[in-house]
Specification:
Blueprint lengths: L5 E5 L4 H11 L6 E5 L5 E5 L7 E5 L6 H17 L4 E6 L18 H12 L3 E5 L14 E4 L2 H9 L7 E4 L5 H11 L3 E7 L7 E6 L7 E8 L3 H12 L5 E8 L5 H7 L4 E5 L13 E4 L2 H13 L9
Parallel strand pairs: 1-4, 4-5, 5-6, 6-7, 8-9, 8-11, 11-12, 12-13, 13-14
Antiparallel strand pairs: 2-3, 9-10
Bound molecules: ribose-5-phosphate (R5P).
Ribose-5-phosphate binds next to strand 11 and helix 6.
Length: about 325
């Protein structure tokens, strides 16, 4: 790989994924001492020298998001103070991305704050995946590589024998993503009109496009409570859809979302492991694809100064 010495580190949020990436790259994860003081403060120390190195730190921002984010900032700070030459924050799930604009007076733009904090801590580049809104890249003045899980979903659904498939966006904001999956699978697109009368409440009542007597793939970036997805699936069933699948990159799956998935109209929900999914959440309708090789290949190409776009063609 590149000229400088490459070092890979992991925070505590997704060690299994970090191990997969390390295996793909044929390197060992760097040793890092991470502990909590009794008052909750985080301590992180890089055990071996990283002077002059090109360092990648893998830390996903699942739940508890604030703990994992602060841990990431502290690791980056430690690396910079240890004279790492470049520090790339590899953030498979970039939290706070849904707070990317003001919709009411006196609201924060938390995604911009997160970008500022990462830069101030010393990140020289960010690698992430299926950002909720691609324009968040513009909140940074350092390079951001926004990878996509769509090639994984494409391969997965190509191998299923779907009848007259159509890709559905569960809201207007997700149309570009769903359109991209539809193009890859050579299917038409349908769009659901979703309203949010209150935070984490989803009301869906209209579909633009033809779903009757077709297998359906609902494409989204995040599932948190599942309200969006399960209500979309109910509406699609009412409108005559056949088997209903869903492809969602980030499976946060809070509270009883896994049980609700099992009871829902969905035949299968396909997510990735950007966020670790505990055994208690692994219900039969949930299928998990790994992004380990994709992240590993992206790191390899960044290090070799090769193009990333061909990964997604
Ligand atoms: C919203 O715009 C996102 O793309 C997801 O549709 C949403 O965040 C999913 O959240 P939940 O599962 O809580 O409905």
């Amino acid at each position: 790989m590149g000229g400088k010495c490459l070092a890979l580190y992991s925070g505590t949020s997704n060690p299994e994924l970090a191990q997969e990436v390390a295996k793909y790259l044929g390197v060992e994860l760097g040793e890092i001492e991470i502990r909590r003081f009794s008052d909750g403060e985080i301590y992180a120390r890089i055990v071996k020298s990283v002077r002059g190195s090109e360092v990648y730190v893998i830390q996903s921002l699942g739940n508890p998001v604030n703990e994992f984010f602060m841990e990431l900032l502290i690791i980056i700070d430690a690396l910079r103070r240890a004279s790492a030459e470049e520090v790339t924050a590899v953030i498979p799930y970039f939290a706070y991305a849904r707070q990317d604009r003001k919709t009411k007076s006196r609201e924060p733009i938390s995604a911009k704050l997160i970008a500022n904090l990462l830069t101030i801590a010393g990140a020289s580049r960010v690698v992430t995946m299926d950002l909720h809104a691609g324009q968040i890249q513009g909140f940074f003045d350092i390079p951001v590589d926004n990878l996509s899980a769509l090639p994984l979903f494409t391969r997965y659904f190509q191998d299923l024998d779907l009848y007259n498939p159509v890709v559905v966006s569960p809201d207007i904001g997700g149309v570009a993503r769903a359109r991209s999956l539809a193009n890859r699978l050579h299917t038409p697109l349908a769009i659901i009109y979703k309203r949010r009368p209150a935070p984490e409440v989803a009301e869906v009542d209209e579909i633009i496009g033809d779903v009757k007597n077709r297998d359906v793939i609902i494409c989204d970036d995040i599932i948190t409570t599942g309200n969006t997805l399960f209500s979309a699936a109910r509406l699609l069933r009412e409108r005559g859809a056949r088997d209903i699948y869903s492809a969602v990159t980030h499976g946060i799956l809070v509270n009883n979302a896994p049980e609700e998935l099992q009871k829902s109209e969905l035949k299968e929900l396909v997510v990735t492991n950007t966020i670790p999914i505990g055994e208690d959440k692994k219900v039969p309708k949930l299928k998990i694809l790994s992004v380990g090789s994709l992240l590993g290949e992206a790191i390899k190409r960044i290090s070799n100064k090769d193009s990333l776009s061909s990964l997604f063609d």
